[in-house]
Amino acid sequence: MSALVLVLLSCTLIVAANAVNTPPAEETDAAIDIAILKEYFQDQARQGTALLALQIMDLVREVKDIADSVRKLEEKMDAISVEQKSIVSSMAAVSTGVTSVEEKVDVIRSEVRLISQHKLTWQNSTWRDVYHPDFAVDGVYTLIEDHTGSSSNPMQKSGQDMNKKGNMLIIDLGGFFKIHSIKLWNRIDGSYSSYAMGVLIYADDQLIGSIHDDQRLYTFRANEGVYGSKVYLKQSLDQYMNFIEVQVFGCGPYSEDEL
Description:
The chain is of the alpha+beta class.
């Protein structure tokens, strides 16, 4: 007989001897203890399963809340994206509108038109305080020979106590314009029209022309690239200076950095 068999047989005999010597009451108590332990562990298992289920449910709720938050955030982002596209579209429309306005303004500015009427004027002397410089840009110029301040065809006249060189009329154009031409409507009553002779016409500091004969209307065309904000009429002879109307034609206004 081998050693392993002897060992197994010894173990069997010991168990049998213990079984024979164990009192019935102790066997019953052991069985009860085992049942209690079994029930305890089963109860713990049930509690653990329920706790795990609650934790899982809480986790599911949190995940659902997070998913809802993400969905709402995505909706807001989509709405913002749509709004951004709308803003970009509106800005593009505004830009197009601005471009259109700029183009229209450029067209308007490029048109040669009367730019002196009802503009601010000044002269260094007013004859009898009647023939004011504003009459030179009032838009009234007819063939009526009455040019007094109360007539329907008034004129400007400088030279009160200054019947000498230096009589001056200034027209402020109110902006920086490209000068096209300047027209001077002379008075037509008697020999007074000769007071126009000797007058020099400037746009800022650029000479446009000069008068050396007696005419009803003088027209001076400016050279290309003549710009100015003021027109000056200066009498270079020892005599008065008077005109029914001064008309400046040009286009603009421009800023000096556009040139």
